[in-house]
């Protein structure tokens, strides 16, 4: 893992990722090594998106959990993280490069997207939404959604991407040749179907009427080595889980 993924804390400017504070240039204090950032980030994502009950954590209706309750929950199951404090969790959430978390002024944190459990994210911002966002599907599914629209499948919300490329990469986690379509957010607003901004690149909605779907030209996309590795890793984990479920 790259040392650029280190989590550090600057006494003047707060937490940052990398080796030097991007504001003042100071080294700051190391909070987590890259492998710790990755490992605790995975635990936090699972806890806030999928199975809080596995850690004895309670989320409120908007998906927030108290940071002071998260720390002992992780430490009780992962004893090697006995050094963990609320500052580590808060700093990890605030500096996440993909903007996957929100930390509020009440000492709470939540995931902003990718939930498979019921949460109300209608308090996310609905401004600065591009006129067109992108959704990954397949040629086989396209005719059906052109008639019926799109509804959430394995997640609580429909996830939309800021760019064609982002949607394509997301689609590759599931299929070899995803078909990317455009979604008109102007038509969504006119039909009173809100779209929420979950991060710089991810937008959420609960329903997409067929009238808001646009066929677009497919663009060539070359995956980076890092993307290829991540896609292959996720697919292998999914296959192992499916195999384990069948054996059970």
Structure description:
The protein is α+β, with helices and mostly antiparallel strands and 248 residues long. It folds into two domains: 3-111, RNA 2'-phosphotransferase, Tpt1/KptA family, N-terminal domain (Arc Repressor Mutant, subunit A), CATH 1.10.10.970; 121-248, ADP-ribosylation fold (Alpha-Beta Barrel), CATH 3.20.170. It is 34% helix and 18% strand. The chain has seven helices and twelve strands. The chain has helices spanning 34-49, 67-77, 86-95, 139-148, 164-172, 185-190, 225-247, and strands at residues 7-10, 14-17, 29-32, 65-66, 101-103, 108-111, 132-137, 158-161, 179-184, 196-197, 202-205, 213-214. The strands form four sheets. It has a three-stranded antiparallel β-sheet with strand order 2-1-3. The chain is globular and about 55 Å long. The chain starts with 6 loop residues before the first strand and ends with a helix. The mean pLDDT is 93.
Q: End-to-end span in angstroms?
A: 35 Å
Structural domain count: 2
CATH topology of the largest domain: ADP-ribosylation fold
Q: Give the overall silhouette.
A: globular
Radius of gyration: 19 Å
- Compressed to H and E, one letter per element, the order equals EEEHEHHEEEHEHEHEEEH
Please give the CATH class of the largest domain.
Alpha Beta
The average pLDDT is: 93
Uncertain segments are none
The number of helical runs is: 7
Spatial ordering of strands, largest sheet: 2-1-3
Q: Indicate the CATH architecture of the largest domain.
A: Alpha-Beta Barrel
The biggest beta sheet, please?
3 strands, antiparallel
Helix/strand-derived category reads: alpha+beta
- Range of strand content: 15-25%
The helix content, as a percent range, equals 25-40%
Number of E-type strands: 12
């Amino acid at each position: 893992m790259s040392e650029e993924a280190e989590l550090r804390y600057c006494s003047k400017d707060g937490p940052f990722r990398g080796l030097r504070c991007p504001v003042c240039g100071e080294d700051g204090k190391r909070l987590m090594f890259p492998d710790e950032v990755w490992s605790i980030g995975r635990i936090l994502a699972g806890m806030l998106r999928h199975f809080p009950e596995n850690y004895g954590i309670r989320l409120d209706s908007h998906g927030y959990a108290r940071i002071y309750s998260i720390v002992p929950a992780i430490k009780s199951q992962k004893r090697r993280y006995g050094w963990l404090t609320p500052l580590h969790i808060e700093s990890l959430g605030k500096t996440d490069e993909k903007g996957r978390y929100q930390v509020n002024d009440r000492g709470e944190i939540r995931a902003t997207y990718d939930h498979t459990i019921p949460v109300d994210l209608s308090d996310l911002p609905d401004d600065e939404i591009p006129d067109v966002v992108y959704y990954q599907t397949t040629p086989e599914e396209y005719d059906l959604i052109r008639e019926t629209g799109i509804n959430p499948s394995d997640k609580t919300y429909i996830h939309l991407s800021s760019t064609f490329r982002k949607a394509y990469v997301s689609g590759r986690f599931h299929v070899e040749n995803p078909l990317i379509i455009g979604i008109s957010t102007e038509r969504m607003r006119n039909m009173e179907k809100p779209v929420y901004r979950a991060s710089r690149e991810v937008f959420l909605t609960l329903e997409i009427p067929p009238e808001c779907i646009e066929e677009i030209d497919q663009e060539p996309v070359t995956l980076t080595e890092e993307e290829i590795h991540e896609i292959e890793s996720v697919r292998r984990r999914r296959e192992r889980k499916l195999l384990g479920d069948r054996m059970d």
